[in-house]
Design a protein that fits this description.
- The complex is a heterodimer of chains A (about 290) and B (about 325).
- With about 290 residues, chain A is mostly helical.
- Chain A has one domain: MetI-like fold, CATH 1.10.3720.10.
- Helix content of chain A is about 75%, strand content about 0%.
- Chain A has 14 helices and no strands.
- In chain A, helix 4 packs parallel to helix 7, helix 5 packs antiparallel against helix 8 and helix 6 packs antiparallel against helix 7.
- Chain A is elongated, with a radius of gyration of 22 Å.
- Chain B has 13 helices and 13 strands.
- The relative contact order of chain B is 0.14.
- By secondary structure, chain B is an alpha/beta fold.
- An eight-stranded mixed beta sheet of chain B has the order 7-8-9-3-10-11-13-12, sandwiched between helices. In chain B, strands 1, 2, 4, 5 and 6 form a five-stranded antiparallel beta sheet that branches.
- The chains are: A mainly alpha (about 290), B alpha/beta (about 325).
- At the A-B interface, helix 9 of A face helix 2, helix 4 and helix 7 of B.
Amino acid sequence: MKSGLLNDFMRAFQKNRQATFAAAILLGIIFFAIFAPVFATHNPTYIRLAQEQIQLPPTALHLLGTDNLGRDIWSRMLFGARISLLVGFLTMLITIIFGVAYGAVSGYYGGKLDFMMMRFVDISLSLPTIFLVIILASFFKPDFFGIAVIIGLTSWMRTARLVRGQFLSLKEEEFVTAARALGYSDCRIIFVHILPNVRALIIVNATLLVAQAVLLESALSFLGFGVQPPQFSWGSMLSASQQIIFLEEAPWTAFFPGLAIFITVLCLNFFGEGLRDAWDPKLKNIAS
Amino acid sequence: MVNTLPDILLELKNLRTKFKTFDGEVRAADGIDLTVHKKEVLGILGESGCGKSVTALSIMRLIPSPPGEVHADKMELNGVELQSLTEKQMSKVRGNEISMIFQESFSALNPTFTIGEQLIDVLMLHQRLDRGAAFHKAIEALSLVQIPAAAKRLSDYPHQLSGGMRQRVMLAMACACTPSLLLADEPTTALDVTIQAQILELLRWLQSEKKIAIMLITHDLALMAEIAQRVAVLYAGVVVENASVQNLFTKPLHPYTQGLLASLPLLEAECERLKVIPGGVPNMLSLPDGCRFHPRCPHCWQICRQEEPPLFPQNGSEVRCWLFAREMK
């Protein structure tokens, strides 16, 4: 009957046109990122400094024009998507793994341990994220994986709080007592028995985290602390276009990467909200 | 203490379970002595809040601490002191030697797994079986508790089963490893009468065929009369009467037990109102001095208000009441 539950969920999700549409666009973006070499028309890092090659407007040869170093923007967009999405995804994974484990342990054991762990969360939350990320990034000069770790380290707190709240109420359920009465260890009860009850919440949270991470990585790269050349992301493309002194001369160099970030984050948010609504039994009854 | 059954399975002496609350200390179990013999059904009778479930959870060492605190002079299962076991050793005892079933079978099963997954998981945990063997054992366990088409039911989620079915699944899980003691915490309270009878039959079968001793916690006198051999009556955290089931129903000694039995509606008897025990269960935060039952007792006399009575032996039973002190001398 697993498929039955899944069908119910899919039906509820598909009723949400906005979310379905967002999911389709996201799939498209991921598809283009994976097959970037197939769709790229030029080498994305090939520099042509001849005056007639730089800052070309979109043409048939350069679909989205070229940037200040004469590189093809369309090709760079495709390869840049890889880094942007990868950082977003990795950050989400790190955040979820750490945040969920932290929140689960804190909520399950409660008491003094919970108090200490939550105060640490409060402290971490009171540090301004972007500055912390910038400081860490300028200190370690990370590659894209390092960036994911840094962003992950600064965004796990909300996930931890969310999961802790759920665990606080779920651990009082009788099935937890029953599981203990059957002789399961705490570790097993936390991760095998209680955690699946929170999976919907975690998946929704994960989707929204990807969006957050894509934005944060863009901001970081825009400020020059993100991925370093020759690696590049949508954010660093924006940063490069900033160097063009007369932006009005070549607005497409900033417009297209910006648009890509905007669409991706918007779609991720719509998708996440769609997931949440489809999973929330209270909203479900009203909708159908 | 008279016992016709020789082998002691569980011996509990002076169990004290306290909870610290903002209003003060609640002594949910206040010196409970119990003995469960092998292969017997011991009934624990009492109203809500008199410490029945707390006793069971204390034996399982499942009282959350804080706020709970459990102390007993003796808590031995098969001669092994449960209080001295490490948490790891204790989790081997749970499910293997002592199992527990609960009143609400729906909330006691994990809603996110099929009953098959849950059963197989328990079997793999305690019997070191591989998945295939555990699968067959799970079907067997479900058939044992008389679930029709057991193999099919394995892929059902708890919400897809009826209350009676779920209670059977709980029993199957609890008894999958043939424990020596089953703590049944009001196993039939949430079920309707016909299903109750079936579960009762099943419990009786487990006791006689599988040799599982059962500690049956209930406030249902009829259920008790059906299945238990001995009964301990609990009132406000202490045992007030220990008796064989025949003695309890034919010659109840403690005024509280007498009151309970008198309050049963009888079909033959013509009476206009049900007899009730006046008053209510005392507030556990401020227990009365002397005998805990004295404010509601029709036979209350001087000493009852001043001193708590010990258990007095009386005709093969034990009773915590001053009325029987004279006859002892």
